[in-house]
Amino acid sequence: MIPHETQHAIPSYLSKDHIGAWGIFLQQVERVTPYLGELGYWVESLKRPKRILIVDVPIKMDNGTVVHYEGYRVQHNTSRGPGKGGVRFHQDVTLSEVMALSAWMTVKNAAIGVPFGGAKGGVRCDPRDLSMAELERVTRRYTSEIGFIIGPDKDIPAPDVNTNERIMAWMMDTYSVNQGRTSTGVVTGKPVSLGGSLGRHDATGRGVFVVGRAAAEKLNLAIRGARVCVQGFGNVGTSVARCFHNAGARITTVQDVSGTIHNDRGLDIDALVGLQASGEPITALREAETIENDNFWDVPSEFLIPAALEQQITERNAGRIQTRILLEGANGPTTPEADDILNDRGVLVVPDVLANAGGVTVSYFEWVQDFSSFFWSEEEINRRLDGIMADAFATIWETSRREKVSLRTATFIVACKRVLEARQLRGLYP
């Protein structure tokens, strides 16, 4: 028997007016519950993070003052293995957001079959306002504050929004110093010279492309000549744009914090990357028209790839989108209401918990390589990544057709059954 919904599905430390992304995750769990069978007995465990840590991160600024930042590390579920998930530094980070991101990591890891649970972390700060020395202090203090709950066999952080391999190196070093021994496996996404993996930088974007290609095959949609719109031109956006460009697609529209550019004949991706490297905005690209940011959602395409932040596609703009396949490169870019609108309009939505799982897949490879001290070639890594992503898509596509549900619900069906089966087999202690 599935227990009745309790009043505590929204934790007491979040008001109902501020559940944000966590509320979206709860709605997604509600949608999948009828498909869980007897495993639905355990579904409440998905609605409650295993562990939430809120920490104060005080640092001395370059001018001698002391500033306090708020940091989080949430471990949503560890039934299938140690926690795994990124760390983001952003001025708008909230507990609700980090909780939801950790939960989506639980689903993502289970959906592709890697032996991790879900976790996530963040510090509410604006890295643009920090010097490199101040950023290092924030990173090291935050790592020290959460150090007792992370570790290679406990919880393994990775890069996320506004964090990179440099920050992962500081995290690894801080943890190692506090442990009294070098522990390369405590984080992934590190520099290759410190135990990082080849192929990790482009893994998320490559994974988005691989499942996009698989989805296109199901719809008999050719990639060569296809129009692609990309929102967000960071690590994921640049990598997936390059993959589609190399496959013969036209990247017609790109949006980032500096603005939105469009050219129906296709944008010069190498030139865009060069502009970013030199610190110039993408709007400086020649042979590209600058359009209003809100008009991004009106541009016709075969592939639309939101690769920025959460809740970008809502009921307010979902009806305007003109695309065949929406590939979620970002985490949680589409609200449940927008999901319904897109599905009703025949847009195939490949959800974040499947589409952007390439990053954690290669993070898993890095973790394995660190334990064995034996490292693979980039060709081997890409081959394994492509195989895992293609297999996961095939399983989820078949579940979607069999159950007559969206790919998102199908992904949750596959993943939640795996997580809850592990919970059932392990039982409760004491």
Question: In a nutshell, what does this entry contain?
Answer:
The protein has 12 helices and 12 strands.
Q: How does this model look, in words?
A:
The chain has helices at 20-32, 95-112, 132-146, 165-179, 203-218, 235-246, 269-277, 336-344, 352-355, 358-372, 378-403, 407-426, and strands at 51-60, 66-77, 83-90, 117-124, 155-159, 227-231, 250-256, 259-262, 289-291, 303-306, 325-327, 348-350. The protein is α/β, with parallel strands linked by helices and 430 residues long. Among the domains are: 49-182, Rossmann fold (3-Layer(aba) Sandwich), CATH 3.40.50; 203-355, NAD(P)-binding Rossmann-like Domain (Rossmann fold, 3-Layer(aba) Sandwich). The chain is globular.
Task: List its traits.
12 strands; alpha/beta; 12 helices; Rossmann fold; globular; 430 residues
Q: How many E strands?
A: 12
Classify the secondary structure makeup into a structural class. Answer: alpha/beta
Helices and strands, in order, run as HEEEHEHEHHEHEEHEEEHEHHHH
Low-confidence stretches: 1-8
Whole-number average pLDDT? 92
CATH topology of the domain at 203-355: Rossmann fold
User: CATH homologous superfamily of the domain at 203-355 - what is it?
Assistant: NAD(P)-binding Rossmann-like Domain
In CATH's first tier, which class of the domain at 203-355 applies? Alpha Beta
Shape-level CATH architecture of the domain at 203-355: 3-Layer(aba) Sandwich
